[in-house]
Amino acid sequence: TEKGDKGKANNKVIEALVAANALIARGRLKHQYPHSWRSKKPVIFRNTPQWFVYMDRDIANTGTAADGNTLRELAMTAIEETEFVPAVGQNRLRGMVEAKPDWVLSRQRNWGVPITVFRNTDPDSDSFDDIIPSAEYSKSAELIDRITAAMRAGGADAWFAEDAKAEFLDGIVDNPDDWEQVTDILDVWFDSGSTHVFTLEDPQAFPGLAGINRKVDGGADTVMYLEGSDQHRGWFQSSLLESCATRGRAPYDIVLTHGFVLDAKGMKMSKSLGNTVAPQDVIKQYGADILRLWVASSDYSDDLRIGNEILKTTVDSYRKLRNSLRWMLGALTHHDPAHDVDASEMPLLERFMLHRLAELDGEIRAAYAAYEYRRVVSALSNFMNSDLSAVYFDVRKDALYCEPVSSVKRRAALGVIAKIFDCVTVWLAPVLSFTAEEAWRERFAADAEASDVGSVHLEVFPEVPAMWLDEGLAARFEKVMRVRRVVTGALEVERREKRIGSSLEAAPEIYVADEGLRASFDGLDVAEIMITSDADLRAGSPPDGAFTISEVDGVGVVPALAQGKKCARSWRIVSDVGADPEFPDLSERDARAVREFDKMAAG
């Protein structure tokens, strides 16, 4: 019995043996025994006839390229011709097929898809043990049509109907009593493995993927099978064997394998343990894009952990990405493509941002092509958080808010932000599908009727000119950013000590010993890059007491307060405030901008 105790049947049998003087000995044996994973009950063994697919017999007379090969050989060749993501999946499937015994197709259950054949049981017949339908039997096509029609009308249960045998075989064979109706059902993996026949080869359901031999016929379609790592033993393998046996090749070009979702502690989710995290609950609380971002940020080739703390981290990452999109939408309200500046005439900072876009273009395309979505999210997060929010947007706020409309710097910045928005939104669309669509429609809603706005999901990745790449400029800005880190650190200390409130109250003295580092600032406004009202870049080693950081050798900052008056518009402290009598509270630059805005408003 289940707990090892003797049951009533045991005693009855033993008593009968004793009464018949046939009991030689008695004892108890404890051994390991297979149990059902679902019911946890012992599994009973039965020896029964089965139907097999042979792995090592020649496949002949099939009319396919498979003639003269064994199923194992065909499958091994197909595995080599298939791309696996990750690559380790190929070794796993290869090892399973290489050592696979003959495939047992039949099961003896009361439910399932029947093996719809009849077996000849007449021992006096030359065709004893033959089956129909078969290629050799002339009326097989008619028999198949009858079985098909019955199942269309009544489902798989039509095979098991009381009078099914008589109806199917009437007029098909001379003596139906010589034929046994097989009542075994198919292995469920055979069912799932046959799906390619009803999808890839159905021209009505999938017109773009009709025909399993797509590459042979010169087609450009690529078919991917995507499932969990357990399917190397299941669907991946059964699909492979069925297709190879009937068509001589795999039904797929790519096999992508993912892991399974575990709870935050790495335990398998189970209702009985109460540690399940339902997708619909996550979507209800955070939105679908949070769930999508969590998946895309993870290494899906391994098992994934999910929990409240993990999701909170994803929410923080999402907010940063969304805030960058919102900031760009606000800035682009003032963008007019007719006023864009040619890349060759842009300031160095804008040309560097175009370089970063060109760099990202290659990286994003390569990552998507390799199904490495974590690389996509990482690259875009670093770009939007580090390059854009922490540097470019911060530096260019002054130009966007305060420069005259005609300013080349302002027009160049708006043009670059428009290009960044278009690229980033389309790049993010496969991951943050709802957020990207919302941002896209908001961006273009003002320029078209609602029905003409289009969808970001109908866009292709933007073509980014290769001429934007400028490795020399990138090397210069890498040096500029190193110096900027020291200045930012010094200003943070000044704020913490309450010696300044805003960085615009400062005019730091920046000592740079290395000539190459100093030269990297040629053509740049140092104060603009540091977001201060003024800055003095000096040659030489930092003096005693200067602020330094160990990561940037030979660079030091001596804080100083900016001299002059505070512009009421830009908040910069400069010496030319009041230079324009008409605007006594503004710097000369801001007075010029206001006069230009007033002229435009007056028409």
Q: What integer value in Å does the Rg equal?
A: 37 Å
Quote the average pLDDT.
88
Q: Helix count, per DSSP? A: 19
Q: What class would the helix/strand composition place it in? A: mainly alpha
- As residue ranges, the low-confidence spans are 61-66, 212-220
Q: What is the strand tally?
A: 19
Strand arrangement, largest sheet?
4-12-11
Percent in strands: 5-15%
Q: How is the main sheet built?
A: 3 strands, parallel
Q: Percent helix among the residues?
A: 40-55%
Span of the ends, CA to CA = 96 Å
Shape estimate: elongated
Task: Give your account of this protein's structure.
With 603 residues, the protein is mainly α. Helices cover 43% and strands 9% of the residues. The chain has 19 helices and 19 strands. α11 packs antiparallel against α14. It is elongated.
What's the SSE blueprint?
Layout: H1 8-19, E1 52-53, E2 58-59, E3 69-70, H2 71-81, E4 83-85, H3 88-98, E5 103-104, E6 106-107, E7 118-120, E8 131-132, H4 140-154, H5 164-169, E9 179-181, E10 185-186, H6 188-193, H7 195-199, E11 224-228, H8 235-247, E12 254-258, E13 261-262, H9 279-286, H10 288-297, E14 304-305, H11 308-331, H12 348-369, H13 373-402, H14 408-428, H15 433-444, H16 471-496, E15 509-512, H17 515-519, H18 526-530, E16 536-539, E17 555-558, E18 565-566, E19 573-574, H19 588-602
Parallel strand pairs: 4-12, 11-12, 13-14, 15-16
Antiparallel strand pairs: 1-5, 2-3, 6-10, 7-8, 7-9, 15-17, 18-19
Helix pairs in contact: 2-3, 2-8, 9-10, 10-11, 10-13, 11-13, 11-14, 11-15, 12-13, 12-14, 12-16, 13-14, 14-15
